[in-house]
Every structure is written in C-alpha cells, then in structure tokens.
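Page header: ASSEMBLY MODEL / two components / 449 residues total.
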Amino acid sequence: MSKRVYTNAQDALAGIEDNMTLMLGGFGLCGIPENCIRELVRLKVKGLTCISNNAGVDDFGIGLMLQQQQVVKMISSYVGENAEFERQMLSGELEVELLPQGTLAEKCRAGGAGIPSFFTATGYGTEVAEGKETREIDGRMYVLEPSLTADFAYVKAWKGDKYGNLIFKGTARNFNPVMAMAGKITIAEVEELVEPGELDPNFIHTPGIFVQRIFEGVDYEKRIEQRTITQ
Amino acid sequence: MALSKQQIAQRIARELNDGWYVNLGIGIPTLVANYIPEGVNVTLQSENGLLGMGPFPTEDKVDADLINAGKQTVTMLPGSVLFNSSDSFAMIRGGHMDLTVLGAMEIDQNGDIANWKIPGKMVKGMGGAMDLVAGTENIIVAMTHANKHGKSKLLKQCSLPLTGRACIKRVVTDLAYLTIENGSFVLRELAPGVSVEEVKSLTNGDLVVADDVCEMTF
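Prediction written out in full:
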C-alpha cells in the first residue's frame, strides 16, 4: 500500500513551499480542514494562492492565514464576513478572483478529471466572461472556463481508512470531494481514521485513489457562523 | 398599501406546484418556505449540498456539520439527501430545478438581473446566483419596487454589473406582480390599495398594464 498515513498535520504537510497554489475544502466554516490550516499558520508559508469557496472569518479558517498576510490571491465565490480580507482586498495587497459557485466546483471537478476546460452558460454576458472565449452551441451562448488544479489540496472528512477512502458527514461534504480530485497531492484530515475494511465500500464518497496522504485530526472546533434555532 | 416582506413571500408561494424542487435565495425568498400551501409538497435545495431542507433545529439538535447556503444551522427531513458541490450545481446548471426565487438590486425589461456587485463598494461575491439564473428556466425575483433612495429597481437597462442576461420573466415586488414579455414589464396584479399610477411612477422601464390586471388578496 503506497498510501502515506501520517500521525499529525505537522508531518502530513511536508513539502509545502512559498508561492504554491492550494485548494481548501469547506463551505463557510463547515467542513474546513482545521488541522491543516492551523499548520499552515504555524509554518507561515507565504505568497499562497488559495482556492476555496469562502475565505473564513477574521479569527478562524483562512482568516487566520490572511491575518499573517500569507495569501496573495484568493479564488472564491463568496467572501463576506471577513474584515481583514476586505481591508487587504481594498488596499490591493490581496488579489481576488470571484467565480460563480457552480463554475468553481466544476473547475475543480474537471481539473481532477483531466478536462482542461469546459463550456458553461453561467456568467455569459457578465464580467465573469470578460476575456474568455465564448461560443454558440445549439442556439445558446456559452463561456469557456479553464479547469483548476492545485499543488496541494487540503480536505476534511468525517471518517477515512488507511487507503484514503473517505466518508463525509452532513453538508460538510461540499467542495471537499472535488478538491480531493484536483490536488496534485491531496491531504485528507479525518475525525476518525480506521483500518481498511471498516468502511462499507457502498457508502464511500471519495475513493482513496484521489488521496495521497491522510491523518487523524485533533481538537475540532467546528465553529458555527449562524446559529439559528427553532424554539 | 405596499406588501410586507412576508406578503411578498406569501404571494410567491402561491406559484409553487406539488412535487417541485425549489431553491430559495437569502432574504425575502427564504420566507417563502413559511407559506407553502397546504397539500403542496416541495423539496427545498440548499446549494451547499442538501435536498430536502428542514426547519432550523431545536437547541439539542444543532449540528455544525449541517448548514444551509446562508451558513445557518438547519435540519433534514425524511427523504433528504446530501451531495457535493459539483453534484449540487449539476442539479442547478443542468436545468433540474423547477423554480428559483432570488432577490435583486436591479432587473430590466430585457430580463437582465443585477444582484451581486456595486462598483466602489466591498464585493462579497456572486455565490451561486449566476449559476441559478443561467440554469433555471423558471425564476421569480422577490424585491422592493424601489431602492431605499426611492429610485426604481425595474429599469430599461440595468446599470449595475449583471448576474445574468435575458433570464428573468417574473417579479413580485412590494407593489405588484409583473411579468417581463417582449421587452417590457407587464403589470399583472397590484398590492391591495396600490394604484396603477403608483406602479407606473416607480417603474423606470417600459410598462404595459394587462387587460385583466387585478388586486392581490391575502
């Protein structure tokens, strides 16, 4: 088995360098790779391009990396709820490429599936399409979107086995499976790491072939952005 | 009198059909879920990866791993299903949603919509809005007829950066229910006590009054 099982984030993140392109799974703060982010913050690697649907909040998630000015470019679909992000964006320190959420997801999926670019109707006639090739297909206009890959993809799953097979919980799945596909090296952190055979193959979401390194994470905070309650 | 946000949602809810898959945007569209007519079963999609979204949880059922696209804690229902972002947007972009309800800053008589960016202000991003307007045939816009400065949001041509082109065919505002047909707004229903003149004066785009224009009842 060539799968590399690591004991912690510190070992698993070996090889990260300044100026790399990273993917980070999660939607809002749900399903984010907390242990990997903590380690990236500790390592203080800089000049990073981060592909992630959101940019965390000021004091959690990617927000922690922004505080140390480790990120030079964000590729996201929605970046509200982060004052430091806003400051860096408006001052020009941080380049931001905003993409439609479905286009972002498909760019990752396509990148992982060996598809270099694809046509989509989303964004046609908007500034998202500026500078991109467009084409009429069967009477409708489409935009050619290049796919995305990353030097490292960091994903977070609920359970994983030592072959890297992953199962996600709830809506913490979100971008994690497609980013796992698109990473040249994908590092999965899981809440529970089990032996091969313990996960039912019928219920595995991400096959281990997409995962190069895996470790069991610790101290999950799982912060909630909007705690909405029915009385 | 102008409709409240709840009444806008209530009017939109009357357009729901049994068995539909529906995506509700943030704000007024979310309220539509509170007025689903009796006997009508719709499945709500949350684009972060959930079909069959239930109400907010009780305190003891709060789960950080179960949120909606507005990042609010939610619940599932019997028959709910979870999926990844790419599958979620395959549902949206592949034309599988029966209805999308979303808010807007501006719409125009050509069916263009702008709802994600004001130049010079902090841009938060379009999220899934561009996918939803490009991928759904049936869209209802929920918004106020005028902005907070009293300026019409129903224009000849949108002035803000677009979210989508030629995709909007129906809008429910606090003053009226209108369709967009052949390059103009068509006034179909008036909010109770609101006059045709009032709607005309707050509609910047071309406006046609339908022969059978009527007053909404609540």
